[in-house]
Amino acid sequence: MASKIKAIRFWLKVVAAILALLLGATYGVIVSVILTLARKNNLAQWSTARFFYHLFSKLFNIKIVIDHPERLEKLPGILISNHQSELDIFMLGRVFPKKCVVTAKKQLKYVPFLGWFMSLSGTFFLDRSNREKALSTLHRALEELKSSEGGLFMFPEGTRSYATDPKLLPFKKGAFHLAVQAQIPIIPIAVSNTSTVYSPKTKTFSGGVINIKVLEPISTEGLTKEDVPHLVEKVQKQMDQAIQELGFSETTDGIIEAPLSPEVEIGTSVEPETETDANEETTLLAHLAKDSGN
Hints:
InterPro entries: AGP_acyltrans, Plipid/glycerol_acylTrfase. The protein has helices spanning 2-37, 44-60, 88-95, 114-120, 131-148, 174-182, 228-246, 275-293; strands at 62-67, 77-81, 100-105, 124-126, 151-154, 186-191, 198-199, 204-205, 208-214, 250-251. By secondary structure, it is α/β, with parallel strands linked by helices.
């Protein structure tokens, strides 16, 4: 009986979270139009992110504490973070710096409200089925990034891990190819494990405190595409160590549930990228780096 009540509470909160997201997206559409008219479109995603963070934080009593937030302003740069669950949208609301944008799958462009906001605020949509269009989009993203001294936020794991232990999935190389090609730093962001606050596996959705550590930006000056594998290994090692030190996010009652067994470590709520998708992404960015070097 207790488990059923917990599940009902979980899904009621999920519905409330979706409504909060829709409200945030509606705000984003409005503010994007206003800022576009004021020729300050590059502040739209930052403004919407902060609005959503404060709204979500008040509704669900979840706070975020950031160590070294000043490092988020060392732009231009590629910002990367561990990708845990749907709660990452809330995390983005707190860490997202000004003049920063995201990349997203083309399909999200057609989602009501959310897609409208993303389109108006400068999101770069990637069409994986069309290599030429994807290359063109990434070229444009890099040019705008450098000219505006802004940031591009990416999740190098490529998919949500739903990890119940402080850990990372293997990194894909896309973000690192972009950073090396543009000769701009990578800004790693480590987030404490949030399964104690939100987890579809255990039907957990509670108040708490999420701790984030922004690591020192890593320069890519002078690096080439041949250096990317070593760069990926270096950054993942640093982030993994930071995530281990951060441990689990705190809950409001001070109780941290024991993690699930390793057999169910990776969630099945979201289909991970196939090997083909991963290869396509790596090939795409490798060609981009090669083409730009000619």
